[in-house]
């Protein structure tokens, strides 16, 4: 009997230990169990940074883990994207990408340090907004026709800020659509420093995202001329579209979406998608973005993947047709 009791005791302890180890392993697999980092490939204060910080705060409240927003500007978003593409695919390093990161850079760079279709796992398309052509307050034009006349008369001396690649593509597209204009392109690492120079008169014109421009537009610190969307923005209903003014070829929307490195577990992608979609559905978030002229999408990972592929094809045609090159 003692041997039987001893064997039973050993079996019980073994089962208890196995259960304990299984529980510990399961606890380690619970996601997220530590801080999550979202890399924004722009300086703080721009449109992508603003969108990301608003969403990150809501996700942090929901998952009960710190969500860190890390700014890594430079290289037309390549520096930040490359960092995420090479990160461990465990769901703790994410990317806040814009359309140029995933859909323009492949057509602009012969050798890109990441593959937008193989190196990332899409999570959700979050937001989108049009670009708006705006000028420093002293710019001598009251409407788009006068602006074009001033640029043509400037014989290549009028300056355009390039806060991000979509801005540069929009400017080159404007050149191709209008015809007969030349200008000086001035690159920046993000929207905030570019806007500071526009307001100060250091640079004259810019195609910038509508959202971050709104406070400066409403205060009169910059002058609006036209938006690149199909319809006028509810946030700036007095500003016409390019199509209204005779330039339908200027339609262009920029977006922000979130991705993880390729190879992340499918259940983590599903969890992250649910958290981002939940954050975007909250009324205070919708109100905040609405006031900034930002549209909310909150797509599935599959829908976002299709959007990336579709936009890559579209921008490849635009970039090649317009002869756009990145120096």
* Percent strand: 15-25%
User: What is the typical, i.e. mean, pLDDT?
Assistant: 90
Shape: globular
Q: How many beta-strand elements?
A: 10
Q: What is the CATH topology descriptor of the largest domain?
A: D-Maltodextrin-Binding Protein, domain 2
Task: Give structural notes.
The protein folds into 2 domains: 36-128 and 254-322, Bordetella uptake gene, domain 1 (D-Maltodextrin-Binding Protein, domain 2, 3-Layer(aba) Sandwich); 130-250, 3-Layer(aba) Sandwich (D-Maltodextrin-Binding Protein, domain 2). Helix content is 47%, strand content 19%. Helix 6 links the parallel strand 5 (159-162) and strand 6 (184-187). Helix 4 (99-108) packs across helix 11 (301-322). It has 11 helices and 10 strands. The model is unreliable at 21-28 (pLDDT under 50). It has 327 residues and is of the alpha/beta class. The chain is globular. Strands 1, 2, 3, 4, 5, 6, 7, 8, 9 and 10 form a 10-stranded mixed sheet that branches.
Keywords:
alpha/beta; D-Maltodextrin-Binding Protein, domain 2; ten-stranded mixed β-sheet; 327 residues; 2 domains
Give a brief outline of the structure.
This protein is 47% helix and 19% strand. It is of the alpha/beta class.
Q: Layout of SSEs?
A:
Layout: H1 2-29, E1 36-40, H2 47-63, E2 67-71, H3 78-85, E3 93-98, H4 99-108, E4 120-135, H5 144-153, E5 159-162, H6 165-178, E6 184-187, H7 191-200, E7 205-209, H8 210-218, E8 223-227, E9 253-261, H9 266-281, H10 283-291, E10 295-296, H11 301-322
Parallel strand pairs: 1-2, 1-3, 5-6, 5-7
Antiparallel strand pairs: 3-9, 4-7, 4-8, 4-9, 4-10
């Amino acid at each position: 009997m003692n041997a039987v009791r001893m064997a039973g005791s050993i079996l019980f302890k073994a089962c208890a230990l196995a259960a304990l180890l299984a529980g510990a392993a399961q606890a380690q697999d619970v996601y997220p169990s530590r801080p999550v980092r979202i890399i924004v490939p722009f300086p703080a204060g721009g449109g992508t940074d603003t969108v990301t910080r608003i969403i990150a705060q809501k996700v942090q409240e929901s998952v009960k883990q710190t969500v860190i927003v890390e700014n890594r500007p430079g290289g037309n978003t390549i520096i930040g994207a490359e960092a995420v593409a090479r990160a461990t695919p465990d769901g703790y390093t994410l990317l806040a990408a814009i359309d140029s990161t995933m859909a323009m850079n492949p057509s602009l760079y012969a050798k890109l340090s990441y593959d937008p279709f193989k190196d990332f796992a899409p999570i959700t398309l979050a937001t989108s907004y049009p670009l708006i052509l705006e000028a420093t307050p002293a710019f001598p034009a009251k409407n788009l026709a006068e602006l074009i006349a001033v640029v043509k008369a400037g014989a290549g001396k009028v300056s355009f800020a390039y806060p991000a690649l979509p801005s540069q593509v929009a400017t080159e597209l404007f050149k191709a659509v209008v015809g007969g204009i030349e200008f000086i392109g001035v690159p920046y690492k993000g929207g905030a420093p570019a806007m500071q120079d526009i307001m100060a008169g250091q640079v004259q014109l810019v195609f910038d995202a509508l959202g971050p421009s709104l406070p400066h537009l409403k205060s009169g610190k910059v002058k609006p001329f036209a938006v690149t969307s199909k319809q006028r923005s509810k946030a700036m209903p007095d500003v016409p579209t390019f199509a209204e003014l005779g330039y339908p070829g200027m339609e262009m929307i920029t977006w922000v979406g979130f991705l993880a490195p390729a190879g992340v577990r499918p259940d983590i992608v599903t969890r992250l998608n649910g958290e981002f979609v939940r954050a975007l559905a909250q009324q205070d978030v919708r109100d905040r973005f609405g006031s900034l002229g930002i549209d909310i999408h909150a797509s599935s990972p599959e829908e976002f993947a299709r959007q990336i592929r579709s936009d890559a094809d579209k921008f490849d045609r635009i970039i090649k047709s317009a002869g756009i090159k990145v120096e």
